[in-house]
Amino acid sequence: MAVYAIEIVLAVLIIYGLAYVFYGRKILQERIVQADASRATPAFTKFDGVDYVPANKYVLYGHHFASIAGAGPIVGPAIAMAYGWALPLIWVLFGNVFLGAVHDYLSVMASVRYGGLSVMSISENVMGRKARYIFLVYVYAALILVIAAFASVAAIIYTKNPKAATLAIIYMPVALLLGVMIYRLGIGVKPATVIAIILAIAGFYYAYKIPLLLGYDPVSGTGDLWGTYHLWVIVLSLYAFIAASLPVWYLLQPRDYLNAYLLWFFVAFAAVGALLVGNLQFTGDAYTSFSPKLLGGHPTPFWPAIPLIIACGALSGFHSVVGSGTTSKQLSSEMDALLIGYGGMLTEGAVSSLAVIMPISLAWSVPELTGTVYQTNILELDKVSRFVVGYGYMTAKALEKFGLDFNNVFTITKLFAAIALATFILTTLDTATRLARFSWQEMFDWLQPKNPGLYKLFTNRFVATFLAVLIGWALAYPTVTIGGKTQAAYNVVWPAFAGTNQLLAALALLTTALWVYAVLKVRGKVSWLIQVPAWFLWITVTIALIWWTVVVLPGLPTVQKVGAGSIVIISLALDFLLIYYFVKGLKSAG
Amino acid sequence: MANPAVKAIGAIITILGIIFLLYVFYLGAVNGAIGEAGKLKTDAWLALAGWFFILIGPALWAGETPVAIKEKLKR
């Protein structure tokens, strides 16, 4: 049966529209949480000018969306295309509406009701003090893995694509200028945005022409590849330290607000492109196999392993840390949380479905790319290239309708896809560093009454940030040899990050489900709407990680076995401890 | 109110950062690249230094809490 691009675009938009209105607004916002515009948020009640700062709804949406949309919604679905396009698309839509968006919205709202506390600290109120510290240690470890993985991925992207590096050094000052224009010079959000967007477009044009070379040139292949990688890891670690220590209004809010335009353009370009090529058929298979060879080269069953492959596009634990970390501290009104928490996650799902799964399905096996980009089909390419080629192909085909030459446009649209990916990764890097600082500071609150001086030192903004960056740097800096080939550290760190991240999502969803049940006293069918997906997710991810530990781990190189394996096994142990406290909390709530 | 010395340092760092970046962008446009393969050139260092100066400088210069946000709090 032929499937056309336009059918998928319409299906995705209708599902998300219905979910936002009926599930998000009617059930979550109005019936469960009962959001109230007159209730003061922590951004006002605990204002400190650094982390607790009220933000414009759209600015905050930009921050939240850009922070949660790292490489996850792109890389995961690109890998999952080995199942064909139907199963990944179903998982993204299902995961988005019933798991990810619920998880994100409730994390923001629970945190707001607890004065901006993280979801880990909220667990104390519903599961007891021990659960809170277990959760905090777990999340801190997971965030260190995020810092290491994203520093390593960004370093390799900037090394191999130095034009993306040029854009980074232009883009950040432009974002900063936006913040200064809005908050310092009193220029309105609209004119300031227009100025910033014009400067960003000029920056994109400059970066398209001029690369930033720190010793290695990928075009000629000359220079020291790994020396340049190491230098970028140092530079990015320093960047993460500075960006995570600065007040949120100064860089984080305006940068992420600007990022949201990039993301919107990125998604809209894909959607409009898809509409323009609406008569194009999917050339990819809807279904290839339930268990293709994926993780570690082993047959990987769609269930339970899919959460280990598709993360942010469907759901991600990192989002709960962002939602209850930076987002809840900047929320101006409880009513803004629906757009930011629930809507942000749906938009991220749109990135996965419309900008990754659909373009790859269109570019799967087409005459323009066969024999040049791939021999028979797109699965021959590595995961990042699948996305870059797919996105570039679909948008270039759309622009071809205006009489432009396909090959010329394809070069530009591919670069745009690569640059967009690199920008999202940098955002995730410094947000994760800031969140690691929050977790660290919360972890030592017991020290405050016992030794205030030591507590002050331990939780100092710069000390706590430096420590997180230092550990992340130590994990990202070394290269590893896998199968006789030198590779960047993220190859070791990524699987551990993916597993712990999804387990965190399950635990955060269970925690917020318990908050709904025990604190908000929501009972009956509506309560089950949250509890059933939460348990389904926890069972799926726990079985997936046990499967990974038993089947995939033994076959990995020693460095991965020790590094990733020990982190995953410790995470599983902490997971079972937390479940014990969860069940206890559920029983005592009656 | 921020310390005047800190504000002065912030202003100097900001101006240096702007000069570094503008100079490097000019050099890049002339040479077709910032830096080159095989070695770490001065313009590449200047690009990184300018980037960090621009990130840090205005924060020191302008202080931490913007007036616009303080007014919002009063309301």
Protein architecture, described:
The complex is a heterodimer of chains A (590) and B (75). Chain A is mostly helical. Helix content of chain A is 73%, strand content 1%. Chain A has 22 helices and two strands. Chain A has a two-stranded antiparallel sheet with strand order 1-2. The longest helix of chain A has 38 residues, at 406-443. Chain A is globular and about 65 Å long. Chain B is 76% helix and 0% strand. Chain B has three helices and no strands. The two termini of chain B are 21 Å apart. The A-B interface holds A 44, 47, 49-50, 53-54, 162, 166, 169, 172-173, 176, 180, 182-184, 186, 206, 209-217, 220, 222-224, 231, 235, 238-239, 242-243, 246-247, 249-251 and B 17, 21, 25, 28-29, 32-40, 44, 47-48, 50-52, 54-56, 58-59, 62, 64-69, 72-73.
Structural class of chain A: mainly alpha
End-to-end CA span of chain A: 52 Å
Major sheet description of chain B: none
Main interface: chain pair and counts: A-B, 42 and 34 residues
Oligomer designation = heterodimer
CATH-defined architecture of chain A: Up-down Bundle
Strand-and-helix sequence of chain A, N→C? HHHHHHHHHHHHHHHHHHHEEHHH
Spatial extent as radius of gyration of chain B: 17 Å
- Rough outline of chain B: elongated
N-to-C series of helices and strands of chain B: HHH
Structure at a glance:
The complex is a heterodimer of chains A (590) and B (75). With 590 residues, chain A is an all-alpha fold.
SSE inventory with pairings:
The complex is a heterodimer of chains A (590) and B (75).
Chain A: H1 5-33, H2 42-45, H3 57-68, H4 72-80, H5 86-113, H6 119-127, H7 129-160, H8 162-184, H9 189-209, H10 225-245, H11 252-276, H12 302-309, H13 317-327, H14 337-362, H15 383-400, H16 406-443, H17 447-450, H18 452-458, H19 461-476, E1 480-482, E2 485-487, H20 490-519, H21 525-552, H22 558-589
Antiparallel strand pairs in A: 1-2
Chain B: H1 4-31, H2 42-62, H3 67-74
